[in-house]
Design a protein that fits this description.
The chain is α/β, with parallel strands linked by helices. It is built from 9 helices and 12 strands. The structure holds zinc ion (ZN). Zinc ion binds next to loops.
């Protein structure tokens, strides 16, 4: 199978990232895009595939969804003012959210544990539409990130792709034969972080046993590390913020527990990647998320594991890191809004 990218296009710089510009089929409009992450809410004005300006807000634990949405709407108006763009000239608003989104209504059916719990009771697209006067599209954040990479980034030119985002949780998404996978209830492809990798593991917030997320994700790491008898003697016990960046740093210094946690996590992510490859038959697998700041260590190991364990008699899946970085979700959801117009 030919794994070459189809065609070439001029490149331009987007917030420090090189990306490929696609010739637009229709008039390019300015779109307000928002990507809700585990700790930060990113907001940007997107025109075509260019992020014109951006702003970030904190995710406030315990803040209700209505209050968070009102804060986002206020920040969006400020962003437009700073950029000299009237909200009346915007073509729409795209919200990438870490939950299951009902196809059609775009209501939020599930939320990350302990955050925005009341989002299920609110008609989020309708509320945003009322606050900003903009047609609003809501989609899953991992689906938005893969859409961005597929149209403008690392998966551009491929017909079938998967993405695994290693952030606070593990987000996944799939595009098969040129069609983004959604399923009857909006949950196909995006629950790769909740596929069991350890049936002797902990019960996850999703209800399943030993999910990839409960075995190796940023939210699961602190209790997992602290439960180890070696924790008090490890340099990890002195870290202000116990995340995978700290684990990779300590492991490189020779900290034994950190090395074990690192190796275990890479194994979980590699196993998850093989499952995504077996389930969705991609030509390319894109790996993104904050944890990929340690991509130099992670990527070669993922490639080795996949080469050894994935069943792909046709050839090799290309395994690559995100080209759009943190902006993939905003660019992807803005592209979706533009497609809908
Ligand atoms: Zn789960």
């Amino acid at each position: 199978m030919n794994l070459k990218r189809a065609g070439t296009a001029p490149t331009l710089s987007v917030c420090g990232e090189d990306a490929v510009m696609q010739k637009p089929k229709k008039a390019v409009k300015t779109i307000l895009a928002c990507d809700v992450g585990g700790t930060r809410i990113k907001l940007g004005l997107v025109r075509g595939m260019r992020l014109l300006v951006r702003k970030e807000l904190d995710v406030r634990a315990g803040e209700g969804s209505a209050a968070a949405i009102t804060r986002v709407a206020r920040a969006a108006r400020e962003l437009c003012r700073e950029a000299g763009v009237s909200t009346g000239h915007l073509a729409g608003f795209g919200l990438a959210f870490p939950g299951i989104i009902e196809p059609g209504s775009e209501r939020i059916l599930s939320t990350p544990a302990g955050k925005f719990d009341d989002a299920r009771e609110i008609n989020v697209p309708a509320l945003l539409q009322r606050l900003l006067g903009l047609q609003t599209l809501v989609c899953n954040d991992a689906n938005a990130a893969l859409a961005g990479e597929w149209r403008f980034g690392a998966a551009r030119g491929y017909r079938s792709a998967v993405m695994m985002t290693l952030g606070t949780g593990i987000g996944t998404s799939a595009i098969i034969d040129g069609a983004p996978l959604r399923g009857q209830h909006g949950q196909a492809g995006c629950l790769g972080g909740h596929m069991a990798v350890n049936l002797q593991g902990q019960v996850c917030a999703c209800g399943n046993l030993g999910c990839a997320e409960t075995e190796a994700s940023t939210w699961a790491l602190p209790p997992q590390a602290q439960a180890q008898p070696a924790f008090s003697g490890s340099s990890l016990a002195r870290e202000k913020r116990l995340d995978y960046a700290a684990v990779f740093r300590a492991a490189a210094r020779g900290d034994k527990l950190a090395g074990e946690l690192r190796d275990r996590a890479v194994l979980v992510w590699a196993g998850t990647l093989v499952t995504l490859i077996h389930a969705y038959d991609p030509e390319v697998a894109v790996v993104g998320g904050g944890i990929m700041r340690s991509g130099k260590v992670i990527l070669p190991q993922l490639r080795r594991f996949v080469a050894r364990h994935a069943w792909t008699p046709w050839g090799k899946v290309k395994i690559t890191r995100t080209a759009l970085g943190n902006d993939a979700g905003m660019l992807g959801v803005a592209w979706m809004v533009n497609e809908r117009l």
